[in-house]
Amino acid sequence: MHAIGRCLGTKEMKNYRKLFKQLFSEFLGTFLYLCIVLSAGIANETNNNTVVISLANGLVVASIVQMCGHVSGGHINPAVTVGALVCGHIKPLKAVCFVAMQVLGSVAGSAVAYLVSAAKLRGNLGATLPYTDTRHEQAFALEFLMTFLLVSVVLSVLDSKRGSRGLGSSPLAIGMCITGCYCASIPYTSSLNPVRSLGPAVMMGIYDAVWVYWAGPLSGGLVAGIVYRFFLGVSHYEYNLRKRSF
Question: GO cellular component annotations, sorted alphabetically (predicted)?
Fold first, then answer.
């Protein structure tokens, strides 16, 4: 039983103060993300300005990671949480709680975006759907690939064994990755985050392709976690060897 408890992370769930701060951090970060990026999407829906929407997503995520990263890691994305779980950065019980807070933050943020937007400009509130002539399986593949890259970058940031190998600002690296992925994917599909799609879908009742935006990013996050853990991450042997060399 003790071994099962250690695997699930029951002990760290008893540190209620720390847990509350982490859960609130994930809720607040996701709430702010949905509020702002949906507002940016609504403001640019008529001219479909790819660059503006991409920059809004990247800059907002970078800002939220800077704000919340020291508390919870600033996941604000179930796909990132899945990748972190596979790599051992978070235990299963806490991962479930993080995803629950992300879902709540998504719906709350989407509700605020709905309330503050003018009805004639609101459209579908930025609900994610495969664009014209893009099949669901094509959208799934794009979501998988883009999220794989995003989660791989996040895991490289979380990897403490890399030492000084990582260059520059972690929030900036994540934000730039998201901006690039959005620039590439907006003509076909645009989510990279299941809760980015969930909130508007709930508010507007648009569930036509919601499975694409859960299955694609979650699969990408899962595979990214496996690849980073076994192929890209610094092993304990390499880490100890590098420590002895100094």
Answer: plasma membrane
